[in-house]
Amino acid sequence: MITYARMKNPKLLIVLDMQDGRLEKTKEFGADLVFNPGKCDIDKEIKALTNDYGCDVYIEVTGHPSSVIQGLAVTRKLGRFVEFSVFGSETSVDWSIIGDRKELGILGAHLSPYAYPFVIENMMKGNLKTDGVASSMFKIEEWEKAFDYATGNHGDFKVAFKFD
Question: Which parts of the sequence belong to the Alcohol dehydrogenase-like C-terminal domain (predicted)?
Answer without folding.
Answer: 4-113
